[in-house]
Amino acid sequence: TRLRGGRLLVVMFPYMDEALRFQPVHEQLDQYWKERGVPHLDLLPVFSNLPPAKLVVNAHDAHPNESAHALAADAIDTFLKREIAHPSASTGQTH
């Protein structure tokens, strides 16, 4: 990415129906990206206080629904605006 003049930014989307079950994995990924100086946004905190039924398409489809996508879009927008405005300020996780 850097060789081509770009910057790697990472957004981590949790499993919508079992988000907290995978919290240790999110913590490992957080450490991985921090060690590499890659700005990243973990969306787990955005969704973790909401019941999965309010976030998924339906009981048979755990993909994010319209509400979950709206929450993610707001968080990603904030993250990207911060990274564009202050690219060297964030080398770790951003919420």
What does the model show?
This protein has 95 residues and is an alpha/beta fold. The protein contains three helices and five strands; from the N terminus they run βαβαββαβ. The protein has helices at 23-35, 44-47, 66-85; strands at 10-12, 40-42, 56-58, 61-64, 93-94. It has a three-stranded parallel β-sheet. A two-stranded antiparallel ribbon has the order 3-4. Helix 1 (23-35) links the parallel strand 1 and strand 2. The longest helix is centred in the last third of the chain and has 20 residues, at 66-85. The chain is globular and about 45 Å long. It starts with 9 loop residues before the first strand and ends with a strand.
Shape: globular
Strand content: 15-25%
One letter per element, helices H and strands E, the order comes to: EHEHEEHE
Coarse structural class: alpha/beta
Largest sheet: spatial strand order: 1-2-5
Task: Name some characteristics of this structure.
95 residues; 39% helix; two-stranded antiparallel sheet; single chain; 3 helices
Briefly say what this structure is.
The chain has helices spanning 23-35, 44-47, 66-85; strands at 10-12, 40-42, 56-58, 61-64, 93-94. With 95 residues, it is an alpha/beta fold.
Topology:
Layout: E1 10-12, H1 23-35, E2 40-42, H2 44-47, E3 56-58, E4 61-64, H3 66-85, E5 93-94
Parallel strand pairs: 1-2, 2-5
Antiparallel strand pairs: 3-4
